[in-house]
Amino acid sequence: MRLYQLDSYATRFQARVERAWTDEKGHYAVLSQTLFYPESGGQPADRGVLRGPFGEVQVLHAYEEEKAFGDVVHVLSAPVPEGVEVEGEIDWPRRFRHMQRHTAQHLLSQALLRAGGYHTVAVSLDSPVCTVDIEEEAEEAGVLKAEALANFAVYADYPVEAFYVSEEELAHYPLRRPPKVRGKVRLVRIGDFDLAACGGTHLKTSAQAGPIKVLKWERYKGGTRVYFTAGWEALEDYHAKHALLARLALAFSTNPLELEKPIRKLQEELYALKGENQALKEALVKALLARALEEGALLVPDPVLGELAKALLAWGEKTFLLVSPEGRFALLGPRRQEVLERLRALGAKGGGKEVVQGALPKERVVEALGLLS
Ligand SMILES: [Zn+2]
């Protein structure tokens, strides 16, 4: 018996261990009844504990032995004996978040249908950032309207109820999605806003799912993936983003909603400086080129070492050694292997094909510059 379908707010239950086993991956148990929701329909499994004569073991995961109908298998931190009575308790704060995500997804899927004729084909509720995949290529106006509509449904405080109907009766119910199971079908109704076949856990009223915030949407498999967050997790997201904006606003001495202005200014200044820096480097390379051609070995500033070496490649018949005051060096030309051997004797390390690059101890820079002569 799946107790979570009778009362999704119950947190403790009594049961008997009907089957228990262990394999190389872990310890498992099937109970006579359970509140642990097994992972399905995009909603993650519950976690919690089992208590009994053996003490307390953690329930790490729960899954359906066979999809939709099979027993709920509890994955445990330690083995439990068959036949004993246990008390189970689910991790309620975690479950409540899952119920917020899941109920919000019902509301958003219906809102997407009403706002843009968008049909939900898949959902993921594995993390605070949940997704609804729709068949259609969504328009911005449609998604924003759906977000507003979903939140209106939150504020309308609709009751959420689950009930069973037979397969024959189904035709009388205008379902948002046809059921995936046969036989007796569980329907979940949210006021007169949404009606869908679902075996999951839901809140008592739509109001408990709010707020519902669409975070972004993108093209996905010919349709659209809509990202959203709901309930406590939406509030936490708002808190984190508000705190971040407040810190940035303080750093830029402005108010959070005017942050774009100083950031854009900073970007423009950065681009201008980068351009200026490049021009200066090029001028410096040009100025040093003449001296390098004349002297062969040259002390050069670190930032232009590589560029100057590249420019000198045009004079392939001559060997050049450029060394920076910090000890970085670039070596090129026909005698480079022989010079490299001598640099190594000074403690240099490095390699390369046309241009050998590396570093040597700072205190050997003057000595290194004398190696070419
Ligand atoms: Zn549901």
TrEMBL record:
<dbReference type="GO" id="GO:0046872">
    <property type="term" value="F:metal ion binding"/>
</dbReference>
<feature type="domain" description="Alanyl-transfer RNA synthetases family profile">
    <location>
        <begin position="1"/>
        <end position="225"/>
    </location>
</feature>
<dbReference type="InterPro" id="IPR051335">
    <property type="entry name" value="Alanyl-tRNA_Editing_Enzymes"/>
</dbReference>
<dbReference type="InterPro" id="IPR018163">
    <property type="entry name" value="Thr/Ala-tRNA-synth_IIc_edit"/>
</dbReference>
<dbReference type="GO" id="GO:0006419">
    <property type="term" value="P:alanyl-tRNA aminoacylation"/>
</dbReference>
<dbReference type="Pfam" id="PF01411">
    <property type="entry name" value="tRNA-synt_2c"/>
</dbReference>
<protein>
    <submittedName>
        <fullName>Alanyl-tRNA synthetase</fullName>
    </submittedName>
</protein>
<dbReference type="InterPro" id="IPR009000">
    <property type="entry name" value="Transl_B-barrel_sf"/>
</dbReference>
<dbReference type="InterPro" id="IPR018164">
    <property type="entry name" value="Ala-tRNA-synth_IIc_N"/>
</dbReference>
<keyword id="KW-0030">Aminoacyl-tRNA synthetase</keyword>
<dbReference type="GO" id="GO:0005524">
    <property type="term" value="F:ATP binding"/>
</dbReference>
<dbReference type="Pfam" id="PF07973">
    <property type="entry name" value="tRNA_SAD"/>
</dbReference>
<dbReference type="GO" id="GO:0002161">
    <property type="term" value="F:aminoacyl-tRNA deacylase activity"/>
</dbReference>
<dbReference type="GO" id="GO:0005737">
    <property type="term" value="C:cytoplasm"/>
</dbReference>
<keyword id="KW-0436">Ligase</keyword>
<dbReference type="GO" id="GO:0003676">
    <property type="term" value="F:nucleic acid binding"/>
</dbReference>
<dbReference type="InterPro" id="IPR018165">
    <property type="entry name" value="Ala-tRNA-synth_IIc_core"/>
</dbReference>
<keyword id="KW-0479">Metal-binding</keyword>
<dbReference type="GO" id="GO:0004813">
    <property type="term" value="F:alanine-tRNA ligase activity"/>
</dbReference>
<dbReference type="InterPro" id="IPR012947">
    <property type="entry name" value="tRNA_SAD"/>
</dbReference>
<keyword id="KW-0862">Zinc</keyword>
